Amino acid sequence: MTDDAPDQSAADIVAAEWQYLLEEGAELVDPAMVRAAHAQPRLRELYPRVSHGIVFFSRCTGLPAAHVGGQVHPMEDGRFWVRGPVGQGTLGEVATLEEAFALLAAGLPDNCGPAVDGTARDL
Protein backbone atom coordinates (compact mmCIF):
# COMPACT_ATOMS: atom_id res chain seq x y z
CA MET A 1 0.00 0.00 0.00
CA THR A 2 1.35 3.45 -0.87
CA ASP A 3 0.59 6.75 0.73
CA ASP A 4 -0.05 9.48 -1.83
CA ALA A 5 0.21 12.28 0.76
CA PRO A 6 3.43 14.25 0.41
CA ASP A 7 5.83 14.16 3.34
CA GLN A 8 5.81 17.33 5.38
CA SER A 9 9.04 18.93 6.45
CA ALA A 10 9.62 19.85 10.08
CA ALA A 11 9.26 23.51 9.09
CA ASP A 12 5.84 22.76 7.54
CA ILE A 13 4.69 20.93 10.68
CA VAL A 14 5.88 23.79 12.91
CA ALA A 15 4.20 26.40 10.68
CA ALA A 16 0.94 24.43 10.67
CA GLU A 17 0.89 24.23 14.49
CA TRP A 18 1.54 27.96 14.79
CA GLN A 19 -1.23 28.63 12.27
CA TYR A 20 -3.63 26.43 14.22
CA LEU A 21 -2.84 28.21 17.50
CA LEU A 22 -3.11 31.64 15.87
CA GLU A 23 -6.41 30.92 14.11
CA GLU A 24 -8.21 28.35 16.26
CA GLY A 25 -6.35 27.98 19.55
CA ALA A 26 -8.33 30.50 21.62
CA GLU A 27 -9.94 27.71 23.64
CA LEU A 28 -6.45 26.55 24.66
CA VAL A 29 -4.52 29.77 25.23
CA ASP A 30 -4.94 33.55 25.17
CA PRO A 31 -4.52 34.57 21.49
CA ALA A 32 -2.47 37.61 22.56
CA MET A 33 0.06 35.24 24.12
CA VAL A 34 0.35 33.23 20.90
CA ARG A 35 0.72 36.39 18.78
CA ALA A 36 3.46 37.75 21.05
CA ALA A 37 5.36 34.45 20.98
CA HIS A 38 4.97 34.12 17.20
CA ALA A 39 6.38 37.62 16.70
CA GLN A 40 9.77 36.37 17.95
CA PRO A 41 11.67 34.78 15.01
CA ARG A 42 13.67 32.40 17.25
CA LEU A 43 10.52 31.13 18.97
CA ARG A 44 8.62 30.89 15.68
CA GLU A 45 11.02 28.20 14.42
CA LEU A 46 10.37 26.00 17.48
CA TYR A 47 7.35 23.73 17.86
CA PRO A 48 4.75 25.46 20.07
CA ARG A 49 2.89 23.43 22.65
CA VAL A 50 0.22 24.48 25.14
CA SER A 51 -0.58 23.17 28.58
CA HIS A 52 -2.89 24.78 31.10
CA GLY A 53 -3.11 27.94 28.98
CA ILE A 54 0.66 28.42 28.84
CA VAL A 55 2.76 28.23 25.65
CA PHE A 56 6.02 26.31 25.79
CA PHE A 57 8.46 25.28 23.10
CA SER A 58 10.04 22.09 21.82
CA ARG A 59 13.04 21.38 19.62
CA CYS A 60 11.05 18.57 17.98
CA THR A 61 7.55 18.00 16.61
CA GLY A 62 6.77 14.71 18.35
CA LEU A 63 6.39 13.37 21.86
CA PRO A 64 8.20 13.14 24.10
CA ALA A 65 8.99 16.80 23.56
CA ALA A 66 12.42 18.35 23.95
CA HIS A 67 11.56 21.42 26.01
CA VAL A 68 13.67 24.48 25.39
CA GLY A 69 13.53 27.94 26.86
CA GLY A 70 11.03 28.76 29.53
CA GLN A 71 7.46 29.91 29.87
CA VAL A 72 5.53 33.14 30.29
CA HIS A 73 2.96 33.25 33.07
CA PRO A 74 0.43 36.05 33.63
CA MET A 75 0.55 37.57 37.11
CA GLU A 76 -2.41 38.91 39.07
CA ASP A 77 -1.11 42.49 38.79
CA GLY A 78 -1.24 42.36 34.96
CA ARG A 79 2.48 41.85 34.50
CA PHE A 80 4.19 38.69 33.27
CA TRP A 81 6.60 36.32 34.99
CA VAL A 82 9.17 34.82 32.64
CA ARG A 83 10.29 31.47 33.97
CA GLY A 84 13.55 30.10 32.65
CA PRO A 85 14.33 26.52 31.76
CA VAL A 86 14.14 23.92 34.52
CA GLY A 87 16.82 24.68 37.07
CA GLN A 88 17.39 28.24 35.89
CA GLY A 89 14.69 30.01 37.89
CA THR A 90 13.20 33.35 36.96
CA LEU A 91 14.41 35.32 33.94
CA GLY A 92 12.39 38.36 34.93
CA GLU A 93 9.06 40.06 35.47
CA VAL A 94 7.91 42.46 32.74
CA ALA A 95 4.96 44.67 31.85
CA THR A 96 3.98 43.30 28.43
CA LEU A 97 3.73 40.01 26.58
CA GLU A 98 6.03 41.40 23.90
CA GLU A 99 8.74 42.06 26.50
CA ALA A 100 8.15 38.66 28.07
CA PHE A 101 8.61 36.67 24.89
CA ALA A 102 11.56 38.85 23.80
CA LEU A 103 13.24 38.03 27.13
CA LEU A 104 12.45 34.35 26.69
CA ALA A 105 13.82 34.33 23.11
CA ALA A 106 17.00 36.15 24.19
CA GLY A 107 17.65 33.39 26.73
CA LEU A 108 17.48 30.52 24.24
CA PRO A 109 20.68 28.53 23.76
CA ASP A 110 22.46 29.04 20.43
CA ASN A 111 21.85 25.49 19.20
CA CYS A 112 18.14 25.13 19.91
CA GLY A 113 16.43 25.63 16.57
CA PRO A 114 14.87 25.08 14.19
CA ALA A 115 12.70 22.24 15.41
CA VAL A 116 13.22 18.82 13.84
CA ASP A 117 10.64 16.21 12.87
CA GLY A 118 10.73 13.49 15.50
CA THR A 119 10.91 13.17 19.26
CA ALA A 120 13.37 14.10 21.99
CA ARG A 121 14.90 10.64 21.53
CA ASP A 122 15.82 11.59 17.95
CA LEU A 123 17.95 14.59 18.95
How would you portray this structure in words?
Helix content is 30%, strand content 20%. The protein has helices at 10-24, 31-38, 41-44, 97-106, and strands at 47-51, 54-58, 67-68, 71-74, 80-83, 90-94. It has a three-stranded antiparallel beta sheet. Strands 4-5-6 form a three-stranded antiparallel beta sheet, covered by helices on one side. The model has no long low-confidence stretch (mean pLDDT 92).
Features:
123 residues, alpha+beta, 20% strand
Helices and strands, with pairings:
Elements: H1 10-24, H2 31-38, H3 41-44, E1 47-51, E2 54-58, E3 67-68, E4 71-74, E5 80-83, E6 90-94, H4 97-106
Antiparallel strand pairs: 1-2, 2-3, 4-5, 5-6
Helix pairs in contact: 1-2, 2-4
